[in-house]
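Record format v2
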Amino acid sequence: MVAPYIELRDVRKGFGPVEVLKGVNLKVYPGQVSALVGDNGAGKSTLIKGLAGVQPYDSGEVLVGGEPVHLTSPKDASKLGIEVVYQDLALCENLDIVQNMFLGREEVHQGTLSNGEMEKQASSTLGSLSVRTMKSVRQKVSSLSGGQRQTVAIARAVLQQAKVVILDEPTAALGVAQTEQVLLLVRRLAEQGVGVLIISHNLADVFAVADHINVLYLGTMVAEVETKDSNRDDVVGYITGAKTFTPNLEGAAR
Amino acid sequence: MTTEQKDVDTSLAAKIDTAGGATPPGIATGYEGTAADQFRAYVSRVRSGEMGMLPALGGFVVLCILFQILSPDFLSLPNIANLMTQTAFLGMLAVALVFVILIAEIDLSAGVTAGVGMAVFVQLNNGMGVNWILAFAISLAVGIVIGLFIGYFVAKVGIPSFVVTLGLFLGFQGLQLVILGDGNTYRVTEPAVTAIENSNIPPVVGWILWAIAVLVTLGTAFYDRGRRVRAGVPVRGIGLLFARVAVIAVVSGAVVFLLNLNRGNNPLFPIAGVPIVVPIVVALLWIGTQILDRTRWGIHLYAVGGNPEAARRAGINVAAIRISAFVLCSGLAIVSGLFQASQVGVVGSSFGQTDVLNGVAAAVVGGVSLFGGRGRLVQGLVGALVITAIANGLGLLALPGGINLLVTGGVLVLAATVDALSRKRAGASLARV
């Protein structure tokens, strides 16, 4: 088994008297897709915000590349190669694909934008993800479909040389064909050695792309299963609390 | 089916491939293909709602034809020169406003800011005998301080720009009175300032400036092309480059040629040459456009206008961008004030009070979106040209003044309708994809 790139040990987070994360463990492996599932209010968003550095954990250990780190700002996370693609994508519709992918870190030469270089990198990044559905990298984002926008947001993270990309509900607003495109893109991302943590409510998507499934239930990680050893009914059971996960049993079954 | 897809879940990959199978490999950059391809791509962009200033330019041509039929004086040489000098001040104000409109803000105080700046200017220049350049530099500094003030309250305190600048719009009318003294009106006595709108550059100098402009256009086109070649990305055909520069050279050359003809009635006192204000406006517009198109600041301004939250998450200092836009707007408003002072020859306590809405109207007529993020500086100038042409043409027809306002208002609504309809169509075409 590969060493995990990110490892959370017993992280806790509370808001006043409410304890949202009650000692959560999580591993994200390079080149693999880990899914994080759980019902509304299970603590998924809080867990992600901690990793993104937006809302630091109260206690617990965060290991990145085996080293203990403190994630206290989005910049910390970014420096460690952790990129989050939020559900609302945060793209500028009035700018084109290249401009969005390089927004905030445009390349300049003698004070003026190096448009050719950026175009080339954007094009090759999209090419490496085998994205073929766009007419031109100079297309405005306003003219793109939901799936294409998701692609641009993910490619932006890849361009930043992310080691781990966290995708928050990437397929929530997409149609069937677009969902498949995005899921394929997620697999390509993993093939490039990037660790992917995907948060989704859609178990069909999770079973289609994920290597591991982590189930969060009321602030506790109640199950960590290999996708190939599990099935939909079991995972639904873990999510709703109707079923209890016992690692030994699973091991014995295998 | 490519090799890297093999180890992916095959059923998924197979389904994707049938869905997007017909698309060619690799992603275009928009620079490929023949001139005909480029033209087709441009037409499809226009059809999808990115019309830019095309409606305003079309409207201007229609107005020219209409007014020329109704009054043969409209396209006479003296009136063409008039139209340019009359457009200069409103165009400069509109260009100033475009900077704040691009970030989806508004500066209702731009007109009175010009008024305050010019009040300071005439007090220093006439009242105290300060050299006009120094006096103008000080009024420019006043404009920058006003811009910082607005920017601070909008970006840091978080008050809507509409409210902040409405407050200043009222307050600065009082400030103008305070600076000038109640009821006082000053004549602009400095010959250099009067010359900006009322004198012409010698025809030879006009041609030299034209040649410089054409060479700079050609030079930047080749510089950009060279950089793209070095980066190893596709470039447009060299013929297209020359054709573009040639169109610019011919159109601007025709204007210079016409303005260099004698347009005076008295053969003993020929009036010829490009009005001094024209190259000043062209130069400022060129510099502003280069900054918007070629710098990180420019792209960040568009980003803040398009989606401030995305800009913030991308690490852009949104507050600093907002403040700088207001500083540029107020500073350029002072420049427009200088043009107006030169044109009307007096600075009174009501200077600039009714201009700002015309400036906003000019930007909207030119195709700049009030929702932010869409528009170019030159569109402000083109919009101002349309509005000025209406006032000028109706003036030649000796129609009552009320008609002018009615027509201008109608054109504004028409321009906004064209923009809204084109956007609606763009939305519809997107939904079809």
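Chain A touches chain B through 54 residues (CB under 8 Å).
The longest strand of chain A covers residues 18-28.
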